[in-house]
Amino acid sequence: MARYLVTGGAGYVGSHTVLALLERGDEVVVLDDLRQGHRAAVPEEAELVEIDLADRDRVRAVLQAGRFDGIFHFAALSLVAESMREPLRYMAENVGNTLWLAEAAVRAGCRRLVLSSTAALFGVPERIPIDEESRLGPVSPYGESKLMAERGLEWAVRLHGLRFASLRYFNAAGADPGGRLGEDHDPETHLIPNAINAALGLGPPLVIFGTDYDTPDGTAIRDYVHVTDLADAHLRVMGRLGMEASCRYNVGSGMGHSVREIVAAVERVSGAPVPLVEGPRRPGDPPVLVASNARLRRDTGWRPHHGELDRIVGTAFAWRRAHPTGFPRIRAAPERARRVPVPLGV
Ligand code: UDP
Questions:
Q1: Is the residue at 345 inside a domain?
Q2: Tally: H helices and E strands in the chain
Q3: Burial profile 11-35: b = 16 or more Cβ within 10 angstroms, e = fewer
Q4: Nearest C-alpha to atom 11 of ligand 1 is from which residue?
Q5: In terms of residue numbers, what domain contains 97?
Q6: Where residue 331 falls among pLDDT bands split at 50, 70, 90?
Q7: What's the Cα-to-Cα distance from 263 to each of 192, 208, 287, 288, rounded to whole Å?
Q8: Positions marked active-site
Q9: CA dist., res. 239 & res. 249, Å (int)
Q10: How far is ligand 1, taken at its centre, from the CA of residue 53, in Å?
Q11: What average pLDDT does range 189-215 have in this prediction?
Q12: Total domain count for the chain?
């Protein structure tokens, strides 16, 4: 049994990783300011510490007191389009929070960190699939902020003996197959939940961002990886840090699906049409992003277990249908609500 700090553990990928750690028998402390995360997404077996990562003194105190075996760092601003409007905030927050967190970890003697990174590091890729040797060239401040964070952490590897892994994820999607957790962003910007909301009549018609890409059906192609498989990759890669000081992995299914293919999958799974309109391209969106996951498979034995598109869309659909308004918005005072149950079957 090990003890981990999970920043952003009340968010989408973070909460699924917390669940995987708890199921394995590890102890988990979640650090989240609940700006984007949900109190109700943190299982009661985990401790929730509600603070902002920018509050350096409190972060240091948590690290000093915690005696953690490692940190999973998810907390970040993560929307490409928003980063195009607020570039400096994205870079200042994402880079600053990551490096101060690492500084607090090193001071406290905690020397393993897995960073939630992104395919946005690769910008418009030269070749598909994208492997770890592909040229780095972000085309958004969001991607740039993660690249800068990775580079900063490399210095901590060299000079402080930090062990650090970066997981560059492609499109996280789906929901816990047990129905305990799902995707709940406000505002929701992602394709699969937006298409599901449109099919269920819970949101406006889906806008397809660009139908003139150089792809077979004219819409952009992405690599959708199930969030539970993604969580599994985090656990495996943390284990890998026992052997390696620094590593980076692309995490995707290795298969590409166009926006129209996603719409068709949502229609198959839901049995309802997806009302949609065709719109212009969204700034900062490359035409095709598909991962090579060969290194991750080779080094860690990882395999996608929920990789089929209909499985990904099916779990996302089941969660949204059961939770049409998402997680309950719990407004209790932090000191009374540090431990909260997952709303099973709410
Ligand atoms: N997309 C879309 N309509 C939406 C949301 C997304 O057409 O309402 C497209 C988007 O342009 C991209 C793909 O769907 O090509 C996946 O976008 P998403 O925001 O889910 O993830 P991203 O690839 O930006 O991380």
A1: no
A2: 10, 13
A3: bbbbbbbbbbbeeeebbbbbbbbbe
A4: 209
A5: 3-327
A6: low
A7: 8, 10, 17, 17
A8: 142
A9: 14
A10: 28
A11: 97
A12: 1
Question: Of 191, 190, 183, 189, which is closest to residue 258 (Cα–Cα)?
Answer: 191
CA-closest residue to ligand 1 atom 21 = 190
The C-alpha atoms of residue 121 and residue 239 are separated, in whole angstroms, by 24
Residue 38 placed within a domain: yes
Residue 59: inside a domain: yes
Measured distance CA(196)–CA(138) in Å, rounded: 29
Contact present, 107 and 169 (Cβ < 8 Å): no
Contacts with 161 (C-beta within 8 Å, 6 or more apart), sequence order: 111, 245
67: its two tokens: 């005696």
User: What average pLDDT does the segment 5-25 reach?
Assistant: 98
**Length of the chain counted residue by residue:** 346
Ligand 1 centre from 272 Cα, in Å? 21
**Residue 86, both tokens:** 């607020």
pTM of the model: 0.94
Q: CA-CA distances (angstroms) from residue 334 to 5, 59, 330, 331, 338?
A: 18, 16, 10, 9, 6
Residue 337 lies in a domain: no
Residues with CB under 6 A from ligand 1: 80, 171, 189-191, 194, 206-209, 220, 222, 259, 282, 285
What's the pLDDT tens digit per position in 208-233? 999 999 999 999 999 999 999 999 99
Atom number of ligand 1 nearest to Cα 208:
7
Percent of residues, the chain, with pLDDT higher than 70: 95
Cα 317 to Cα 96: distance, rounded to the nearest angstrom: 36
pLDDT tens sequence across 282-320 = 987 889 999 999 999 999 999 999 999 999 999 999 999
- The CATH number that applies at residue 103 is 3.40.50.720
d(CA 317, CA 323): 10
